[in-house]
UniProtKB/TrEMBL annotation:
Keyword Membrane: yes
Localization per Swiss-Prot or TrEMBL: Membrane
PANTHER family referenced in this protein's UniProt entry, alphabetically: TETRASPANIN, TETRASPANIN-10
Any one annotated GO CC term: plasma membrane
Record protein name field: Tetraspanin 10
Pfam families recorded: Tetraspanin
Residues passing through the membrane, by range: 84-106, 126-146, 152-176
Keywords tagged on the record: Membrane, Transmembrane, Transmembrane helix
Topology class, membrane: Multi-pass membrane protein
SUPFAM superfamilies noted in UniProt: Tetraspanin
Natural source organism: Anser cygnoides (Swan goose)
Keyword Membrane attached: yes
């Protein structure tokens, strides 16, 4: 448009005096150029507006489709650091449990080829599994809070919800099957009794239970006859005996444990054995002890659930700050 106006101005500008004939030739040309339509500024504006209407809505109003997340405040930063420290604490506890479990398996040689068949009944396996689970979930929570990773925080939230659901389900099943708890307890103690010599952890557990509750065996001290080492037909020196933890006075000279205090007690009658060992079994006494500790057990479970809920709420707060579009999307 600008070159056309310049050309017109040059044509209309008087350079020199011309004759009447020459001016008569220039005037029709100028009149034709003046009659040509020139685009105005309003037309340009309208064209720009029409072109703008064809742009995507996200390009016309980017602030509406891609909102800038608000800057976290002091409370959000505090929650983020608390979530990190909370997960760090449980990460350390999980690594501690994992280390104890691996150390126990290695110390007992449970990972050797000939003992792998008994690995499923090893109590140290519970420490390994619990430590692995707690460490993995807590590590995801730590890194998610530290790096503001929505993916890791969503994994942490899902894992904690799964743990809480399993704990609640387990508590409900125990409450519903509380009448069968004695049978399950008897089966567990029988397994400990049969593997008393093979598993040092089970031996320690059985000895502690029998000393603390002043009991012996499952229903009576004669249950130890089912153990292949304490059976009277066994060839070893422990035949017809029971563990020293069954003795009324297992200490010799008041300081040293006498491992042979119950030697040959299964050959004696009940009246004579009553002066050496505890005659009553541990199933009834352990059941009574568990019923007496029901309040403490419920309190501990409630505290555990509250701790998990606190970590869950902190993770949800951090996730809401870094992902305003939604926790799961």
């Amino acid at each position: 448009m600008a070159p056309l106006r310049e050309r017109l101005s040059r044509l209309l500008r008087p350079r020199r005096a011309v004759g009447s004939g020459e001016s008569s030739r220039l005037l029709p040309q100028a009149s034709r150029l003046a009659e040509l339509p020139y685009p105005s500024d309003d037309d340009n504006d309208e064209g720009l507006l029409v072109e703008d209407t064809h742009l995507p809505a996200a390009e016309q109003h980017p602030e509406e489709w891609c909102p800038v997340p608000p800057k976290p405040g002091a409370f959000s930063h505090c929650v983020r650091y608390l979530a990190f420290l909370w997960n760090l604490l449980f990460l350390l506890l999980g690594l501690l449990a994992l280390g104890v479990g691996v150390w126990g398996l290695l110390a007992k040689g449970s990972l050797q080829h000939e003992r792998l068949a008994l690995l499923g009944s090893d109590p140290m396996l519970l420490f390994v599994l619990a430590g692995l689970g707690a460490s993995a979930v807590s590590l995801a929570g730590c890194l998610g809070a530290l790096r503001s990773s929505a993916c890791l925080l969503r994994f942490f939230v899902g894992a904690v919800l799964a743990f809480v659901g399993l704990e609640v389900l387990g508590g409900l099943l125990l409450f519903a099957a509380r009448r069968r708890l004695r049978d399950a307890l008897r089966a567990a103690l029988l397994l400990c009794l049969l593997h008393y010599q093979q598993e040092p952890d089970l031996r320690l557990l059985v000895d502690e239970v029998q000393r603390a509750l002043s009991c012996c065996g499952l229903g009576s001290y004669r249950d130890w006859e089912s153990n292949p080492y304490f059976n009277c037909s066994a060839p070893g020196v422990q035949a017809c005996s029971v563990p020293a933890s069954c003795c009324l006075d297992p200490l010799q000279n008041g300081s040293v444990t006498n491992d042979q205090c119950a030697l040959g007690v299964l050959r004696l009658g009940d009246m004579e054995a009553a002066g050496v060992v505890h005659l009553g079994g541990c199933v009834v006494q352990l059941g009574a002890w568990l019923r007496g500790q029901a309040g403490s057990i419920a309190t501990g479970a409630a505290v555990l659930v509250l701790l998990e809920a606190a970590g869950l709420l902190m993770a949800l707060k951090v996730l809401a700050d870094i992902a305003p579009g939604g926790v799961w999307g």
